[in-house]
Structures are given as structure tokens and as C-alpha cells.
Write a structure and sequence with these properties.
The complex is a heterodimer.
Chain A (H helix, E strand, L loop, with lengths): L1 H15 L10 E8 L2 E3 L2 E4 L5 E7 L5 E5 L4 E5 L4 E6 L5 E7 L7 E6 L1
Parallel strand pairs in A: 1-4, 3-9
Antiparallel strand pairs in A: 1-2, 4-7, 5-6, 5-8, 8-9
Chain B lengths: L1 H24 L6 H21 L1 H10 L1 H38 L10 H29 L4 H27 L3 H29 L22 H10 L7 H23 L7 H17 L17 E12 L9 E10 L5 E11 L6 E12 L9 E11 L6 E13 L2 E13 L7 E11 L6 E10 L12 E12 L6 E11 L7 E12 L1
Antiparallel strand pairs in B: 1-2, 1-12, 2-3, 3-4, 4-5, 5-6, 6-7, 7-8, 8-9, 9-10, 10-11, 11-12
The chains are: A mainly beta, B alpha+beta.
């Protein structure tokens, strides 16, 4: 029984890490948070490609970067950085917002 | 004249369809004619009053008085209809049996006829007020004189009443023993439609989010301004472009009233007989030995957010034929969790359960841990790990621990999640079984507030000797979920679903729900 569990775990892990190499050379985009607003508010990315988004929080207070589709939530403390993995996106626009300041911190990623 | 006839007809049609259904549902009850007439009369008087004070009402609640008033009336009607259906569920079989022996006249004493009369009154009031206002408006503005308009109005009232009468007579042709089921179903849909309409009014009053302005647009098939559309609106709350929140209220009403109806009908009123009680004890013992029948229906995601505090409530009620002793099993958990690091979230949970035939009692305290192993989206799968230890409240019951992977795959707007768990008992009176359980969910993102999906849960009491499929528990059903921010801080998540039992060992149906509040600390 123990062996079966280990086999199952190994299978799941290998599936998860299956494309291990793919993330190594990935494009990276940056968005900053200043005065509870995102800069820039629109980020152009290539469609159908995986990429990383680095969030630099230039404010003193924390902000939670959030996207509904796909589901991403990351709290970035004041003065800190956080990274989100995104893509591949079909062409279109994908909105994100700062959950702690949802009225001012809004932006979108446009995949072309 | 024709224009006013048509407009009045459409309004009267809605009310008269409701009156027809309600009257058919009350068939065979002595004195119902009086109650119905009282309801109609009361509704007409109320309509006149509403029309008189229309401006004052509209000005209430910072200009949203009209919408709130309409929503309140509709919710009151939903409550009345729901209560009637639940009441009928409890006593309907007795009444049907009585009717055969007593003839078609049944004692009206117990029946909540005033509930039906109120529903009729409210329907007449709603539609009547609109008719009165409309006619008044025409009388005030139309230079052509009041006669053609009044004539048209009279024709409209007549035609609308005829339609309602036709529905009533049509329903009467159904034999008594089926009439109960048919009218109960119609009333359930009526109530759900009203709840959806009430939700629409609250959206206009800015008290509810739309959850999506138009989840679909069927105006090409049936326009909601047409006669057919209005009739469907009366019966079901049909709109060509429903907002997500309307669908939510519709489904929630069906689930809640329908669930209560079944729970009430399937378990006989009164104290459980000795035989039922002892059967229940046998099942309970079997449940303890094999690991309790799966009660917590929850799909866990491999996601941890550091610094986030969660308060969560889960509930489920299972339904089955009353003789099986598995009907109306309830299970509730309440828990609090916190994202301690960016990859570890511990939670503490309290479990309460009421097995069929027994009272609610506290079952266990559980310490749960979710570990996020991969950053979401970084790899082909999102991977996490879950481990919990559950301490039984009853000293004579065994504790247990459970663990397993949390696996997720993102595919555009679709999210697929799987939980695969192994559980073992420890301590006193433990069984040696290794229980395997799974939870699967596929959901589709429409908007943050409304995501429909399908989920499946299952349990194999001992995967080392799994036995026949029919003896395992497997269930599947629809679910919808979403998030919402009613306050400035934090966020509310909800889930609600119905599960159909697939094997002989599984209860026929179950409803499950979750309500969660998250806040950053």
C-alpha cells in the first residue's frame, strides 16, 4: 500500500514538473504599485506564451495583486516584490486589480 | 383601445396565472373560494392604495423605494409559497388519502389557506397597481377621451382572467393524486421566478451586484415583452437577458424550498419508531467502524495566500427514502484558517453532524494543513498537499488522520481540481481500513461572482478491499460558486451545489453549501 502511494505521488509530481525546462527562459514583465495605483495600467504581452509578471510595491503599505481569470492572488508587502506566473493567454484582455484598493488599483494585461 | 387592451391583458395575465395555479393547488378544500375572493379583493384595494401613494413610495429610500417595495412584496410571496409547499409536503399524502375517503371536501382547518390568499392578494396588488397607474396615466394624457381606454382596459382584464381560468380548468383535469405533485412543482417554479424578479429589483436599487449583466440573451427566441414572454415570466420569472444574480436566486430558491420539501416529506412527522431508531444505531455503528459516511463535501485548492485569515462554514444535508434510515443526515463544519507562510495554511475546524433520526451533536475537532507546492501557473499542474488530524469528541470513537495531494489544471477559463485522500483511524475502537476518498471539480469562469461547475465526490471504505462498486459511495452534481465584496474589507466566497447519489450505498441526493469570509491581516 505504501508503495502504491509513493508511485502515485511520483506520477503526480512528474506530471506537475513535466515541462520543467519551459519556464527557464521566460519573458518577464514588470508592474509597479505607486500611490495605490498600478503603473502601467496596461501591459502588452505576446499571446499563447508563458511569462512572468513582477510586481514591485513602491508604496509603504501592502497590496494584494489579484486576477479573477486565471485565479491569482498574491500579497506584496510594502517595498517588496512578488512574481506571478501567467500564460499562455488566448488573445484578449485580462484584468487585474489590487484587492486592498480596488477602486484605484486597476489594470489589464492585453495579449496580442 | 387595442393598445391599452394588450397592455392591461399582459399585466392581468401574470396575476391570473398565479391565481389559477394557487386555486388548483387548493382544490378540494372547503371554503377556499372565500379565501381566494378575499385575496383578490384585498389585492385590488391594495393596488388602489399603492397607485395613490406611488410617488411617496418611490421617494423613499433615496429614490429606490419603488424597487425595494416591489422586492419586499415578491420576497413575501416567495416565503408564503415556500411555506405552503413545505406544509403540503408534510401533510399532502395524508390529505390525498383523506380526500378519497371523505370525498372531495377536506377539512380546511389545518391548511394554511391564508398563505395562499396572501399570495393571490400580493399578485393582484402588484399587477393591479401597474394597471391602475397605467390607466391613470393614459386618462391624464390622452386627448381621445377615457372611453376607448377604459373599454380596452376592460377587455384586457377579461382576456387575462380567461387565460387564468383556462389554466385552472386545465389543471383540474389532472387526477387528484397527481395534482398535488404538479401544483407543488408549479408553485416551486413560481416562487423561484419571483425570487429572481426580486433580485432584479434589488440590483436596480443598488443593493445587489449583477453578477453578470446578461448571462444569456434569448430575446430572439422568446422576447420578454411578448405575450409568451410575459406568461413565462409569470410562471418562471423568465427574462431574455438574466443577470447572474437572478439565476443565483432562482437556483437557491429551488434548492432551499425543494430541499425542505423533500426532507419534510421523506421523514414522517412525529417521533421515530423504535425500529427506525435501532436501525439508525446499527448504521451509526457501521459508520463509525468504517469511517463516517462522507459528510463534508468540499474541494480544496492548492492555493495559500500569506497573511490571509479565513472564516469558513460548510454544510450538507443528505436525502433518501425515509425507510433507508439515511434521510436528512446533516453535517456542518466551521473553521478558521490563516496563511502563516506563502506555502503553508493551517486551519482549525469544528464538525457537527446529525445522523438520520438523531439530533445534532458535536463530532470532532480537526487540525488541517494545506501546503502549496508549486506557484500557480508555474508548471503544467498546480500541486499542493493536504494533511489533517481529527480528534473525535466522543471518547469511545477513534481519531483519524487524512492526507493526500491537491492537483489543479488551468485551461483558459476552466479550472480542474482533484483531491485524492487516504484516511486512517487511530486510537480506541479504530478500524484497520484505509479509506480512500476523492473530490473532483471542473468550473468555468463567467465572471468573478458566478462560476458554474460540476463536481463529484466518492469514498471507498477500504481501498485494500474495495468490494463492489454498489457498496461504495459516489456522487456527482452541479455546483456554482463565486466571490463577492459586500464590505470594503475582505471578501466573501460562496458555493452551492446538489449531488446525485450514483450507487446503492449512496444517499439519493444531497445539497451542500459553503460560505467563507477572507480578510488580510
Amino acid at each position: 500500500m505504501v508503495r502504491r502511494i509513493f508511485l502515485g505521488a511520483a506520477l503526480a509530481a512528474s506530471l506537475a514538473f513535466g515541462t520543467a525546462g519551459a519556464r527557464a527562459q521566460e519573458q518577464s514583465f514588470t508592474v509597479s504599485i505607486k500611490d495605490h495605483k498600478f503603473e502601467p495600467t496596461e501591459i502588452q504581452v505576446p499571446a499563447n506564451t508563458k511569462f512572468k509578471l513582477v510586481i514591485k510595491n513602491l508604496d509603504a503599505t501592502p497590496e494584494e495583486f489579484e486576477m479573477s481569470n486565471p485565479k491569482r492572488e498574491k500579497v506584496v508587502k510594502g517595498g517588496q516584490e512578488g512574481t506571478i506566473n501567467l500564460g499562455p493567454f488566448a488573445p484578449g484582455s485580462y484584468e487585474f486589480f489590487g484587492d486592498f484598493n480596488p477602486k484605484t488599483a486597476r489594470g489589464k494585461i492585453v495579449a496580442k | 383601445m387595442l393598445a391599452s387592451a394588450i397592455i392591461v391583458f399582459r399585466e392581468v395575465l401574470e396575476a391570473s396565472l398565479i391565481v389559477g395555479i394557487v386555486m388548483a393547488a387548493a382544490r378540494g378544500v372547503a371554503g377556499r373560494g372565500l379565501w381566494v375572493a378575499a385575496g383578490i379583493a384585498g389585492g385590488l384595494v391594495g393596488a388602489g392604495l399603492v397607485a395613490l401613494f406611488a410617488e411617496k413610495i418611490a421617494d423613499l429610500a433615496s429614490g429606490m423605494g419603488q424597487e425595494i417595495f416591489n422586492a419586499a412584496i415578491l420576497f413575501a410571496a416567495v416565503l408564503m409559497l415556500g411555506w405552503h409547499n413545505v406544509w403540503m409536503g408534510r401533510h399532502g399524502q395524508e390529505l390525498a388519502a383523506d380526500a378519497k375517503t371523505l370525498g372531495s371536501a377536506v377539512a380546511a382547518g389545518d391548511r394554511p389557506l391564508y398563505a395562499l390568499a396572501t399570495v393571490i392578494g400580493l399578485a393582484v396588488l402588484r399587477e393591479g397597481a401597474e394597471v391602475v397607474l397605467f390607466l391613470y396615466g393614459i386618462a391624464a394624457s390622452d386627448g381621445g377621451g377615457p372611453l376607448p381606454m377604459l373599454g380596452g382596459g376592460a377587455i384586457g382584464v377579461l382576456a387575462g382572467s380567461v387565460a387564468g381560468a383556462a389554466l385552472y380548468l386545465g389543471l383540474l383535469r389532472i387526477p387528484m393524486r397527481h395534482l398535488f405533485a404538479v401544483t407543488s412543482a408549479l408553485i416551486l417554479l413560481l416562487a423561484a421566478g419571483m425570487a429572481a424578479s426580486a433580485a432584479a429589483f434589488l440590483v436596480q436599487a443598488d443593493l445587489l451586484p449583477t453578477l453578470g449583466d446578461a448571462v444569456w440573451d434569448s430575446s430572439a427566441i422568446i422576447d420578454d415583452q411578448s405575450i409568451a414572454g410575459k406568461a413565462l415570466h409569470a410562471l418562471l420569472g423568465y427574462v431574455a437577458r438574466p443577470a447572474g444574480v437572478q439565476l443565483l436566486f432562482f437556483a437557491a430558491t429551488v434548492l432551499v424550498i425543494g430541499g425542505l420539501m423533500r426532507a419534510v416529506r421523506l421523514s414522517p412527522a412525529g417521533a421515530p419508531s423504535a425500529r427506525r431508531a435501532s436501525f439508525g444505531v446499527v448504521l451509526l455503528a457501521a459508520g463509525l467502524a468504517a469511517g463516517d459516511a462522507q459528510a463534508e463535501f468540499k474541494v480544496r485548492h492548492p492555493l495559500v495566500v500569506e497573511g490571509e485569515l479565513e472564516l469558513e462554514h460548510n454544510g450538507s444535508v443528505t436525502f433518501d427514502k425515509s425507510k433507508s434510515g439515511r434521510n436528512n443526515g446533516q453535517s456542518y463544519t466551521n473553521e478558521i484558517g490563516y496563511g502563516v507562510t506563502s506555502w503553508w495554511q493551517p486551519e482549525i475546524e469544528g464538525e457537527w453532524a446529525a445522523d438520520p433520526g438523531s439530533n445534532l451533536r458535536f463530532e470532532a475537532t480537526t487540525f488541517e494543513n494545506t501546503f502549496m507546492l508549486t506557484e500557480p501557473g508555474a508548471w503544467w499542474l498546480n500541486l499542493g498537499f493536504f494533511a489533517e488530524y481529527s480528534h473525535a469528541a466522543d471518547r469511545n470513537s477513534a481519531d483519524s488522520f487524512k492526507f493526500g495531494p491537491l492537483i489543479e489544471k488551468e485551461l483558459g477559463r476552466t479550472l480542474l481540481t482533484a483531491n485524492l485522500f487516504v484516511a486512517k483511524e487511530v486510537g480506541k475502537n479504530r478500524s484497520d481500513a484505509s479509506e480512500f476518498s476523492y473530490a473532483l471539480q471542473g468550473r468555468y469562469f463567467i465572471n468573478p461572482y458566478f462560476e458554474p461547475g460540476i463536481e463529484a465526490y466518492g469514498q471507498v471504505a477500504d481501498f485494500e478491499s474495495p468490494g463492489k462498486l454498489a457498496d461504495q459511495q459516489h456522487r456527482v452534481g452541479p455546483v456554482f460558486l463565486g466571490t463577492w465584496k459586500p464590505f470594503d474589507i475582505g471578501r466573501v466566497r460562496y458555493e452551492a451545489g446538489y449531488l446525485f447519489g450514483l450507487t446503492r450505498a449512496t444517499e439519493t441526493g444531497a445539497i451542500r453549501w459553503k460560505l467563507e469570509y477572507e480578510i488580510f491581516f
